[in-house]
Structures are given as structure tokens and as C-alpha cells.
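Sharing a chain and its predicted structure for anyone who wants a worked example. Both blocks are below, sequence first, C-alpha cells second.
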Amino acid sequence: MRLQGLANRVVRGLLATPVAGRGIGARLITIYVVGRTSGRRFSVPVAYTHHGDALLVGTPFGWGKNLQTRTPVDIRLRGSRRTAEVEAFCDEETVVAHYAEICRRNAQFARFNNIGIGADGTPDAEDLHRAWQAGARSFLLRPR
């Protein structure tokens, strides 16, 4: 995790470029978050998966507390910056279901979040529960 800040800067730069942004943007977006109390601005690259007409995102990190339902957020999706409506979830049932969906579609997300995947592609239920206990949240983002 010590190198996470450096990795995030590199990925943010790549996501902002037109060609690379479309390529790696198939699995990653940048979310532009404003701290609720500090007012500081953060740009966070994060994995996503499609969920109907929305993008499904999950995170165990504190920046997720700044995303709130009905409060729009700016994102960079496939090289283009736009606004998205947010629906935030912190209840166990929903977060675990969302994390399971992301893990089934993105093995890197599962590894990053220490969630084992069975031979049949099913995420480990105990690992999903532990992720929620550690503060994981999930979000549906609907780009405009």
C-alpha cells in the first residue's frame, strides 16, 4: 500500500489520455471526490463493472464516505469527464452482493480486496463478509 499513491498518479494520468483512457478505461474510472469536512479534492482511480445502466464501484477506503446518494460526482469514463448520479450503499446484504458481482467480473479487484475466488468463479462468502466488516461500501454511478 506504500506505493499506492504513486500507482494512483500513474493510472490517473493514463486514464486522462484519449488512447490509453479508452483502453484501460474498460475497467477503471477516475472519481473526483470532495471531502465533506475538509473540502479537499481527490481524484481516485477505481475499478468498475457495468450494472444495468449504471457503473458499479466498491471500495474499503475512507474516501468512499464522501460519496452520498443524490449528490452528483464527477468521473472520467473512457477518457471523457462527465457528471454521474450516485447511489451509495453500506448495508451488509447489498455491499456483499455488489462486491461478489464485481469480483466475478474482475479478478484483479478480488485480489486487491483479498477476496478468494472458488474454482467455479464464486467469491468466498467469508471474505466478502470480512470486506464489509472492514468498511467496504458500494456505489452505483449513473453517468449523464
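Comments welcome. The chain has one domain: 4-143.
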